[in-house]
């Protein structure tokens, strides 16, 4: 009996030893697996942290870029917000030349300091075309063929045979626009002679040279502060002789702090997609040019708008433009100082760092 008990005890001891060894092996295997899992987990955590760090850097960079854009382009958002307001809250009207969505009354302000030139960047703006048209106005010219010779076609529709006839101007040759902007700026209310227009000889015909009078005052230290520095293109006596009555009606120049020149424009009819970017640029260029010509510093352009409208044909593209983020405005350098305001040319204008989005085709509605 004792012998059997001893054998049984030995057997149980051996069995327990085997179980312990097996348990130890299992524990060791579990520990090894845990070590591997721990290493893998640590590696995964490190990888996640690396990714998060990269994402954090990217996010910070993107945030800084957005802030940078917004900081320098709040002025263009005035234009974009007006587009958005018209699209969302405007009134649909069936007018002279189609269906528009419009509001009445808006304003914008643009700084011209430090040679800044406000050019809409959420679509490409043809700034050279704008300069050529402005110089055409400044020289008092009204013959569209002069623009066509320079590759400018923005007045083609409004000086076509069909359009002139629609205005009752049957005696005007194609391309003659009548006493529009340039004629009023340089020879206000003078009788409009078609032969003179064809020969580009409209100045000094007995009218008022508004632009030259403004230049004279701006150059005079005693008169540059006048509150009467006004140039108007709206002449009720000659509206029926014009191919198109003026949209940008009247501008006023103002000098502060002895030499800071600003311009305010009132525009009765604002084609927001085709016209407004040109108008903002054109009168900003004019203010820069007059400041340069008269020994002053450009300060501000203030834009007052009457009927602000978007043509139905432009709705889709306007919505697309609203999705874009504007870039920083470029700088303007005027290369030469001319003795006569009529003598400036395209080569005198240099625009630096104009970055913009792709063009958007807005078809002009005449």
Note the topology.
Elements: H1 2-72, H2 74-89, E1 91-95, E2 98-111, H3 127-138, H4 144-148, H5 161-166, H6 181-187, H7 194-198, H8 210-219, E3 230-232, E4 248-256, E5 260-271, H9 276-294, E6 297-311, H10 315-322, E7 331-334, E8 349-352
Helix pairs in contact: 2-10, 3-9
Describe the structure.
By secondary structure, this protein is α+β, with helices and mostly antiparallel strands. The protein has 2 domains: 21-72; 75-352, Thymidylate synthase/dCMP hydroxymethylase domain (Thymidylate Synthase, Chain A, 2-Layer Sandwich). The chain has 10 helices and 8 strands. It has helices at 2-72, 74-89, 127-138, 144-148, 161-166, 181-187, 194-198, 210-219, 276-294, 315-322, and strands at 91-95, 98-111, 230-232, 248-256, 260-271, 297-311, 331-334, 349-352. The strands form 2 sheets. The protein has a 6-stranded mixed β-sheet with strand order 1-2-6-5-4-3. Strands 7-8 form a two-stranded antiparallel ribbon. Strand 1 and strand 2 form a beta hairpin. The protein starts with a helix and ends in a 14-residue tail after the last strand.
Quick structural summary:
Helix content is 43%, strand content 18%. With 366 residues, it is of the alpha+beta class. The strands form 2 sheets. It has a 6-stranded mixed β-sheet.
Keywords, please?
366 residues, alpha+beta, Thymidylate Synthase, Chain A, six-stranded mixed sheet
């Amino acid at each position: 009996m004792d012998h059997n008990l001893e054998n049984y005890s030995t057997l149980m001891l051996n069995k327990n030893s085997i179980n312990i060894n097996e348990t130890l092996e299992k524990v060791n295997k579990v520990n090894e697996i845990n070590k591997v899992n721990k290493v893998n987990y640590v590696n995964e955590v490190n990888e996640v942290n690396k990714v998060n760090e990269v994402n954090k850097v990217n996010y910070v960079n993107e945030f800084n870029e957005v802030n940078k854009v917004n900081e320098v382009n709040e002025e263009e958002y005035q234009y974009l917000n007006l587009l958005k307001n018209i699209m969302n809250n405007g009134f649909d009207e069936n007018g002279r030349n189609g269906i528009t969505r419009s509001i009445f009354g808006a304003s914008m302000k643009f700084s011209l300091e430090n040679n800044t030139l406000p050019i809409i960047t959420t679509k490409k703006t043809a700034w050279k075309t704008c300069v050529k048209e402005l110089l055409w106005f400044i020289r008092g010219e009204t013959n569209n063929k002069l623009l066509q010779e320079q590759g400018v076609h923005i007045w083609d529709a409004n000086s076509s045979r069909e359009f002139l006839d629609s205005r009752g101007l049957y005696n005007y040759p194609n391309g003659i626009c009548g006493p529009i902007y340039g004629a009023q700026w340089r020879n206000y209310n003078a009788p409009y002679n078609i032969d003179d227009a064809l020969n580009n000889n409209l100045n000094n015909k007995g009218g008022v040279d508004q632009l030259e009078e403004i230049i004279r005052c701006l150059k005079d230290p005693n008169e540059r502060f006048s509150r009467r520095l006004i140039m108007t293109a709206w002449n009720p006596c000659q509206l029926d002789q014009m191919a198109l009555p003026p949209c940008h009606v009247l501008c006023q120049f103002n000098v502060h702090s002895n030499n800071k020149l600003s311009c305010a424009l009132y525009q009765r009819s604002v084609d927001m997609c085709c016209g407004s970017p040109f108008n903002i640029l054109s009168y900003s260029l004019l203010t820069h040019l007059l400041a340069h010509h008269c020994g002053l510093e450009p300060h501000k352009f203030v834009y007052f708008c009457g009927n602000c409208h978007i043509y139905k044909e432009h709705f889709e593209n306007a919505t697309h433009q609203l999705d874009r983020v504007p870039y920083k405005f470029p700088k303007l350098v005027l290369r030469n100082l001319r003795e006569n305001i009529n003598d400036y040319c395209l080569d005198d204008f240099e625009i630096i760092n104009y970055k913009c989005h792709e063009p958007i085709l807005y078809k002009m509605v005449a």
